[in-house]
Design goal:
The protein is built from nine helices and eight strands. By secondary structure, it is of the alpha+beta class.
Length: about 250
């Protein structure tokens, strides 16, 4: 029976996770059992997924050499509007220019993401604060039910570009992805015309995996996209400091 097979799969996964809670095979097996269960999973399986797979909020804020990385609050609305409200920032973003209403709703969504009682947080979003001013943000989007992978994204105000700030923040986010969360793989999907973000991916040690032709509907047109990714062992082997270059937003 399918349920018997999935119970066995879950038990194999749990055995691996009890040895190493970051074990990618264990996470995959337990995620398979949850994702393939016909109907509502039993209480014990849902509890196991919550205990072993649910992305837990790290200790915040994070501090890098120059930045404070922290969650958004309603008080950040004007700083976010200062760049998300600009045409040049929105060029490669799928949702276009944002107004106050859009951003107020976005902040409320982010606040819900970070609630400790959220059983399935979809993402971690952190603002880049430099000398008391928000100059950009980075995003780590989780991929249930296995929670072995995440997608990374970023945006920065042009006024702060060219200083390596997004590189610094993205490195810190990758450290979280592979260290705190124990993910196996992190990838970035970006508009193929966004050369600055492609260069940032390469500086982060990410490998270009492919060019996808007109696969992404963005702001009224079909666009090509690029996929970059880095694995946990590749990130562990990465050394060096951020360059002085910077990037535009990644969708």
């Amino acid at each position: 029976m399918k349920r018997d097979r999935l119970v066995e799969t879950a038990c194999r996964g749990l055995a691996l996770l009890e040895t190493d809670r970051r074990d990618p095979v264990g996470r995959g097996l337990l995620g398979d059992a949850v994702g393939q269960w016909p109907g509502e999973p039993p209480v014990w399986l849902s509890a196991a997924a919550l205990a072993w797979l649910r992305p837990s909020l790290p200790e915040l804020p994070l501090r890098t050499e120059r930045l404070v990385l922290r969650p958004a609050t309603p008080d950040d609305l004007e700083d976010l509007l200062a760049y998300y409200g600009r045409e040049d920032v929105a060029t490669y973003l799928p949702f276009g220019v944002q107004d106050r209403t859009d951003l107020a709703a976005s902040i409320q969504r982010r606040l819900r993401w970070h609630r400790e009682d959220n059983p399935e947080p979809p993402a971690l979003g952190l603002l880049l604060e430099l000398d008391g001013r928000v100059v950009g943000d980075v995003l780590l989007m989780f991929k249930p039910p296995h929670h072995n992978q995440a997608e990374i994204g970023w945006a920065v105000t042009p006024d702060a570009a060219g200083r390596g700030l997004v590189t610094e923040a993205a490195r810190a986010l990758l450290d979280l992805a592979f260290g705190h969360y124990g993910f196996h793989r992190v990838y970035a999907s970006l508009d193929a015309r966004n050369l600055a973000s492609a260069r940032l991916c390469e500086r982060l040690g990410m490998t270009r995996e492919g060019l996808f032709r007109q696969d992404f509907w963005s702001q009224g047109e079909w666009t090509d996209s690029l996929r970059y990714a880095i694995l946990a062992d590749e990130h562990a082997a990465t050394t060096g400091t951020a360059t002085r270059d910077d990037a535009g937003p990644a969708h």
